[in-house]
Amino acid sequence: MTLAESPVADLDPEMEALAKGVLDGNRRALARAITLIESTRTDHRAAASALLQRLTPHAGDSVRLGISGVPGVGKSTFVEALGNHVIDAGHRVAVLTVDPSSAISGGSILGDKTRMEELSRRREVYIRPSPSGNTLGGIARRSREAMLLCEAAGFDVIIVETVGVGQSETRVAEMTDMFVLLLLPGGGDELQGIKRGIMELADLVLVNKADGDLQAAARRSMAEYRGALQLLHPRSANWKVTVRTCSARDGTGIAETWKTVLSYRDTLQASGEFDTRRAAQARAWMWSEVNDSLVTALQGDPEVRRQIPALEAAVTAGRLPPTLAARQLLELFLKHHDKWD
Questions:
Q1: Are 277 and 237 spatial neighbours (Cβ–Cβ below 8 Å)?
Q2: Could you write out the DSSP letters of every residue in 140-166?
Q3: Residues 6 or more apart in contact with residue 253 via CB below 8 angstroms
Q4: What domains, with CATH codes, occur in the chain?
Q5: Second label for 337, Cα 20 to 30 Å away, from 4, 27, 65, 189?
Q6: Whole-prediction pTM
């Protein structure tokens, strides 16, 4: 029997009840399941893996949207407006937001439920804020797994809102079907720096806050972005990146945004690219988990941990090249590789 043919692990009665609760759409069960998969305890990780194996066959039937943009662009207001519109259209929405954690204390703001007060009161939505911790770019390591659990619970539109600090966009694009980039009305400076680097990831670009005195500036920005995108290589050969204006505050352009999302999904499904992307994302997810798990195991190895302070001091003082220090740590860790057998 190969690893891929491994049988589904049996769940104990408590975990089976939890799985059934998730499949029944029970919010309390879903919250408990996500808390379980976010835990770093060894015993919890084993239970979480078994739970995911049980529920994964019931996941996948959703539209996965990644929402990104710089702080102040109005991401939460936009997510609330879009979420309300999508619910009114007959869907159930799960919003996974990753809040910035303090690099010093590890604390997290976790304020998205407050910022999306109207949306959070609706029965058809589930909002789950998670601290980003030390994960690259502010994407919680278990965000993908939380997404699968929400799908298993019957939520057919999944929105992943990023911190928007310029490092997480690639990982969001790798775990969602459509990447939506929100930008502010502005001049040519908008095409520089962080935004220029993520324009190629975008499937839909929205110039938000196109209201009041900013309407004219928003239209000019829309024209500039359309011109800039002509010079960039699109992510999809079957989809031309759309640029629109909207006002999350006033609700203008929200219905058109959802129509664009549905058109995008239909276009990629008809071409076969939708399924191809999902398969590529699953492979990328596997290797990302391999990398994260190996780093976690290496840092948790007792002998490695004893050597880290001396090696870090040698690297900091310039007595040892970082590449050599890394090799020594890996060699030390691999000497104990029998623990993986």
A1: no
A2: -TTHHHHHHHHHHTT--EEEEE---SS
A3: 206, 210, 244, 245, 246, 247
A4: 1-58 (1.20.5.170), 59-270 (3.40.50.300), 283-340 (1.10.287.130)
A5: 4
A6: 0.85
